[in-house]
Amino acid sequence: MQKSQGIETIFVRFLVFYAVRGCDGVLHTTDKSNSDSIEKVNSKMALPTNMKRILPLQNLIRLLLLFWVLAAMSGCAVNSEKSGLGSHHSDLWDRLRASLQLQNAYKVPKIRGYRAWFQRNQNYLNRSTKRGSRYLYHIVEEIERRGMPGEIALLPVIESAFRPFAYSPAHAAGIWQFIPSTGKRYGLKQNWWYDGRRDILASTRAALDYLQHLHRKFDGDWLLAIAAYNTGEGNIAQAIKRNRRAGKDTDFWSLGLSGETRSYVPRLLALSSVVSDPDRYNLTLRKIPNRPYFEKVPVDGQIDFSLAAKLSGVPVSEIRKLNPAYPRWVTAPDGPHYLLIPKSKVKIFRKGLASLSKKRQVGWRHHVVRKGESLGVIARRFGVTVAVLRQVNRIQGNIITVGQSILVPATKVRTLSASDGAAIQQRKRVAKGKDKKKSHIHVVQPGDNLSLIAHRYHVSLEKLISWNNIAHNNIDILLPGQRLKVYR
Prior knowledge:
Elements: H1 2-22, H2 24-27, H3 31-45, H4 55-83, H5 92-98, H6 112-120, H7 122-132, H8 136-146, H9 155-160, H10 180-185, H11 200-217, H12 222-231, H13 233-245, H14 259-276, E1 294-298, H15 305-312, H16 316-322, E2 338-342, H17 346-354, H18 358-361, E3 364-368, H19 375-382, H20 386-393, E4 405-409, H21 418-434, E5 439-443, H22 450-456, H23 461-467, E6 483-487
Antiparallel strand pairs: 1-2, 3-4, 5-6
């Protein structure tokens, strides 16, 4: 008994010593202070002589001490991790790899075909990751903070290829592709001036909130949560009920789901497996520095994008890509009153902003057409030309209607660039092609391309591209399970 008690005491003292030494980086103690701490613990562990006879009580105290030591060790480890989370990686991809959690699912045979698709499409990865390099640091940071799987950071590649202005036939918008109703449910405002579904900060917060809700709803199963993000929690819940009634398994791979959802989760897993070890699959990932790309800067009211670009020395196109939630090239009058600015330009932007009056920040006005007004009347009222109003609002002729929203430049407006005009014209073609026609959803099959689909439905390739808001530099990229809208 004496020998057993001696071993227990040595073991417990060793754990205490390890806990103190293990926390050295957090506590910043010297060897002397560690020694003093151990002596104090040893003295506290020494039991009074009369209690040594009460062995059950002594063992209980030792057990409690052991639990305390283990908790202290765990706490030190957590504090150490939180103090420098991800900071030792120079490449953001390495940091992301360290947070991947769903590796067991990478081995499922059903993802092989999707992984092979990525292997054949290095250019698609290049374009998606180049766009995503602006946003990925913020997303990874938020995912780590919440303890979510790193695979979630890659969802925008599957949803939108990180295109901030992506808009689907189902009216989903932004890099996370929120439909209007789900966006409102998660606090994303949507109005003429501002669409929170495209706000990088707000939509990321909402997407992660939604995914965590789905994770809880489906008993901690991330594959079911991700599937529900695509098809809706109601569809997943119904599929689980059907399988339970039939005595079948209720994991993702066993459920009877739509073709799009059956491919959605494997595509994410395939992409994640590629990111985890790109060399293995003869692919490369463009290095992304492990540091913030942008900073949120309060602007205390409306500010025009062209003015923000001038103050910061950042091209207007980059201001737009960081702030895609503002479709009118100006922040909203009722907020939010901030812009995302490249980190390297924040100081110069703040300095320029401080020198402006609030009136000079605003470059646009929103005017609702009243009865009896014409373009000429509005132009004279605001001191601009009819030609400028036509150009800014893409109005053909002089016809406007009561209640129509007109964007009026409060200062001299620049001539729209060719790319701006092309984007607006594309939206007009989309609307024109929809008139008086019924829509049909085509689910992309392996081997499909846009030309084949257009030929099948007897429509032009240009219309198919316009209806689905496909960027011209992405017309060669279709994913199995992708949904395309066709009007005929």
